[in-house]
Amino acid sequence: MQRVTLLILMVVMMVGAFIAFITLTDKPAVNPFSKKEAAQVGEAAIGGAFTLTNQNGEQISNTDFSGKFMLVYFGYSFCPDVCPADLLTITSAMQALGEDADNIAPIFITIDPERDTVEQLHLYMQNFDPRITALTGSAEEIADAAKAYRVYYQEAESEDTEQYLMDHTAITYLMDKNGKYLSHFPHGTDSTVMAEKLQNYINK
Ligand code: NI
Fold it and tell me: Residue 15 has what pLDDT?
């Protein structure tokens, strides 16, 4: 119990620090699971093949994760609050799973490839669970991957061309061991809730 409390406290403090440093915030995330959208596309249509570059400069494809549940999240390293919070949730859930976390492949795909170079992602990911694969690619490769996952993203309007923000969908997708859509976690999901759900799928 104490360990969990400490973990939550740490997460709250880290998220608070991010917000304190950068006061600008993301606009509300666009949810592709609105009733209208879900009726149009169907959740089964989410996901697909990708070949991108990880934070170590290696080429990585979706097939490299076959045999594991994929947790797929699209975001960007300059995100002031939403992305770090969600990556900390994934980090906490992975740690809560213990050895069973070996069944999970968390993947962070940038929607800001212009700034999220391999080097930038390598640096950024030091803040989170080392098992998270961070991926970047060309603007076109990223657009294709985002389209497959029904992820929306767009540069937010700003006078500042260097410090721009991105609007983006903030959903953590859970894909099965063959890369097929299973479920998803909205932004703000508690890490213990995520860990429990993952544990249930691992035990099946
Ligand atoms: Ni974000």
Answer: 57
